[in-house]
Each structure stands twice: as C-alpha cells, then as structure tokens.
Write a structure and sequence with these properties.
The chain is an alpha/beta fold and 471 residues long. It has 15 helices and twelve strands.
Length: 471
Amino acid sequence: MYGAAFYGAYAFWLCSYSVTAFCAAVIWSAAQLSVTFLLCSLACRIFPRARFYVMALVWCVHEFFKSRGFLAFSYGITGYTQWTVLPLLRNACWGGVWCLSALCALSCACAADFISVLMHRKSADARGGFLRVTAAFAVWISLLVSMCVWAILRPASGIKGKPVTVLAVQNNTDSNKYGVDVYKRDVAVLMALTADALAENPGVDFVVWPETAVVPPLMMSWRGGRDPERRALVEDVLDFIDSSGACFIIGNQHTVPGTGDFNAALVFDPKKGNVLPPDPEVYAKRHLVPFTEYFPWGHVFPRFYKMLLNGETRLWEPGDSASVMSGRGVRFSAPICFEDTFGEDCAEFVRGGAQVLFNLTNDSWSQSRVCQAQHLSMAVFRAAENNVPLVRSTASGITCIVDSDGKILAEAPQFARAALVGTVIVSDDSRPSFYTRHGDWLPICETVLLLSVCIAKIAANGVKYAHGKRE
C-alpha cells in the first residue's frame, strides 16, 4: 500500500500521459518496494546492530535495479534531490547519481540509528550504541566534506575548447491536440521564434527543436505522401532550414518502409547540402517508454497489444544504435525525452565520441510543472556525469542550456514560448570521465557488497550454531 501511495503521489502526472502507464508504473513500483521492505525486515534480523546501514545498502541496490530493464523507471531516485547542489553534483563524474543516493541513504541510516539509541538510552547497550552512531556520523561527515572539497578544488571542466552557439526553441504546444491545422500552427510558431532569434544572433551554429516538433513524417511526406497539405508543410520547413544557415536538430517521426515507425531526431545542415533534397542524419530513439511507446510482447499478449494500439498510445520501433552525428566541427548525440533519465544510455553516446548532448523532449502532455522539474533534475546529471554540455529543447518546459559541470546557464520559463540562445564550450579533451568509462560501477559494487555481507553473516551463524550443537 505504501509503495502504491508513494509512487502514485510522486508520479500523479502520468495519468495525463497514459492511465495504462500510470497503473503499470505504480503496480510495478509497489511490487518492487514490497520486496525491498521484505529484505529490510530480514536485515533487521540478520544484522540487529547494523540494521540501519544494511537497510540503506538495500535501498541503494533497490534504486539501481528499478532503473534497469523494460520496466525501468528512474523517477524518484534519492540522489536526484541534490541536483541544485553543485559541489555534490560535480561528483557525478565519478559515481553518477548513485554516489549521491548512497550519501543520502547513509545520512538517513545515521539519523535512524541515533533515534533508536535515544529511545533505548536506558538500556545496558546504550553506551555502545552512542559510540556506534558517533562513528557512523563521523564517516558520513568525512564523506560529505571530502566530496565537497574535491568538487571545489577540482578544475572546472569545459574551460578549454571550442565555443558553440546554440538556439533551443520552446513553442509551448499542446501535444494532446491533433490535425493538420494544429501541426501548421506549431510549425509556424517554431519558425517565427527561430527566425527572430537568428536575426538577433546571426552566429548561431545549432538550432534545436523539441521532440516530434514536426508531426507529419518528413521523409515519407517528401517522397510521395498522399496528403498535399502535409507535403506543403514539410516543404515549408525544409525551405526555412535551407535558408537559415544553421544546423538544425528536429524531432520527427521517421518511417522506414518494411521496418516501421521511429521516434527520431533528424539533423539537417545546409553546409552539407542535405536539406534539399532531404537526406538527414537520423537517430532513432532506443529507450522507449514502456506500454505507451513500446511493447515487445505483442505476440504473447495479442489482445493487450491490440488494446494498446487502439487506445491512448503511439507505439514505435526502437532504434538499434547510439548514433553520434556531426556538424560544424562538433560531434554530438540527440537523446530523446525519456532517454536523458538514464545515465548509462547517455554515457554510451559520449563513449562513442559525442562532445555535446542535444536533448529533444516533450513533457507538455503532463500539464504539470512538477513533472517538468523532476525531468530536469535528472537531465542535468547527464551533463555532470559525462563532463559534456547539454542543451534541452522542450515543447513547453523546461528548455535550458547546461554546462559540463551540470550548472544551468540559461533556462526558459515553463509553459511559455521562448527562444533560448547561449554558448557552450565543447571540449577537445578526448579523455572521458570515470563514470563515462565505467558506467554504473558503484551500484554494482554495492550489490556485490550486500550479497557478500549477507553470505558471510549467514555462514558465520551457521558455524556458530553447529559449534553450539556439538557442545
């Protein structure tokens, strides 16, 4: 019950996106917490004196596994609460969000142990309890101070490199409305905001439009779509891009005959001559939202799959590669929406050579400032983890420009039309961060540690029981 209530309150905005996704997320999260609480209960029995610290370890392992697999859901991970604390955030380059989750869990364990000792201060073991808590607090404070000092003394990343001017557009669209007239209006707003910003900032290198900014499949419409209005809309977009002079990264449905439809980012660069006729670089979203963008077991559950197709969802095919594209002398990748909530996914782009991440997002369906802020709190970690700048263009919020330390340099207001112009430093340093190279090493070590201490304790108790029985 607690798990369902917790995640239901935390992710209430999912109902606006999909009732199916909301129910699935709540049920799955509640089931995971049931197992986690069971393990915590066992920890209390196996480790009576160290129970709070073992439970903290269990919680860290729980957070890691809830972000893995088809039903992965990274919202609610404890470490993301520290996204505005720059001295802590900078530590993500070696431990990801997981090092901050561990720090938070340890602080909770120390506090819980202290309260427990206070409640039993008249017991015979009270003195030993206070010594144990004091030692634990000393460890936690040492870790906190060390992380802050290291972050402050560490040279800032992204000081040296190539300055790149970017324009991130937020057209404040309502993604729950459909039809050619709506698509025309949205494109007109995007082009007007972009044209005005380019007129004031003629040196812009990259223009980023949100996820599915242009709804009609651009390539399919150009090659012979049956709807003349959609074809005309696509032609207007291409003419505008070709005359702009900037490299455009736009969200669009990419249809491959015989394969399927992809939620994609299309890259057009007039300097490469790939606008007219259109021959964009394409990245197809790989990590799709379960049930509402992707369901891999349609052949096993055909009725449920048909219900999804006929309901409130838009199912896509997943992409198969972490594409690294190039333009204006810069190598970049374009994670789409949900993908910037997963550290390992974005680290793969940077391992492949990406020097900057252009994120295309559409959170307008939620109609929730809370949802958009939660999403941003995760996105900034992707910059800090990999020491690369991040530029987010969203449909209604939160569009922003983030430096390679995770610091937000510029931010557009939510639910407003905006064109955000800024400069990021793209580093020529080919040495990736520790996190980029090793990914989620810390929670894997935590999992191994948890299993090891449990096996050792059980084995020790077994030996003790056997010795007592022989006597």
